[in-house]
Design brief:
About 50% of the residues lie in helices and about 15% in strands. By secondary structure, it is an alpha+beta fold.
């Protein structure tokens, strides 16, 4: 095959892949729209009619029936939150990144300031590395990652008299830097760590620790969009560490 013919074949393959990618994104958009609008509307009806039944029964409402209706309404609220989580995960797949030079130390200070009002009454010892190098990424999305990971560290140390949360960094090969958030909280069985980064992946019961199980799935998607990876290490009742990589910012001349 001539060079010209070979080049033409490659161009044709690229065009075909672009068409398939566009078709896949269109189908994903259609699915996301259906989930976020049609299913949510149906859940609103379920919740509303449960409330109507409760009101119509009036004095005939027995404790058992009231409990059943409360379960229906709670399930509808939970599924609504799950739909919102899946919609957000889908949005991250299509979002254009606004890459910039990141002052990670400042992002951490911003997140900790935003979290402070909810931490009243907690004793938390923060150990934050002061020399984190400048990284490259989308500031809004990386702030979201830090919020997810620090919120998890706070949540899973709730049963500790003194929570110890440490933020460190280490340079890796190929111009990457790993940030690690470690805590002395509940930890988990490392045998199941791969489940953590999938939608609704939970290794603790909802009664023990509240939450939807979407934070780490969203974190994984954001980090992968930046060309990085995320992983976790833990042991039962012996704390947890979550690490992720981002590119180092280009050197400023």
């Amino acid at each position: 095959m001539s060079t010209t013919a070979s080049g033409g074949t490659q161009a044709s393959d690229i065009q075909r892949l672009q068409r398939e990618l566009l078709q896949a994104r269109t189908e994903l958009d259609d699915f996301t729209y259906a989930v976020s609008h049609d299913l949510r509307a149906s859940l609103r009806h379920v919740s509303a009619y449960a409330q109507i039944i409760q009101e119509d029964l009036g004095e005939r409402l027995t404790p058992d029936i009231a409990a059943h209706l409360a379960t229906v309404q709670q399930a509808a609220k939970q599924m609504t939150r799950q739909i919102e989580g899946l919609t957000e995960l889908s949005r991250l797949t299509r979002l254009d990144l606004q890459l910039t030079r990141l002052d990670v130390g400042q992002l951490l200070r911003d997140v900790l300031t935003a979290m402070a009002p909810a931490l009243q009454g907690r004793v938390i010892h923060w150990q934050v590395a002061q020399d984190i190098p400048a990284l490259q990424g989308d500031a809004v999305l990386i702030r979201q990652v830090l919020m997810h990971l620090l919120s998890n560290a706070v949540k899973f140390t709730a049963h500790r008299a003194v929570a110890e949360i440490q933020i460190t960094w280490q340079t890796h090969a190929n111009g990457l830097c790993a940030l690690t958030i470690a805590d002395n909280g509940a930890g988990f069985n490392p045998q199941y760590k791969d489940k953590l980064f999938h939608a609704f992946g939970r290794l603790h019961g909802a009664r023990e620790f509240e939450g939807l199980g979407m934070g780490l799935a969203l974190t994984r998607k954001i980090v992968e969009r930046h060309g990085g990876v995320v992983w976790a290490n833990a042991a039962p009742d012996a704390g947890c560490s979550v690490s992720f990589t981002l590119p180092l910012a280009p050197t400023v001349n």
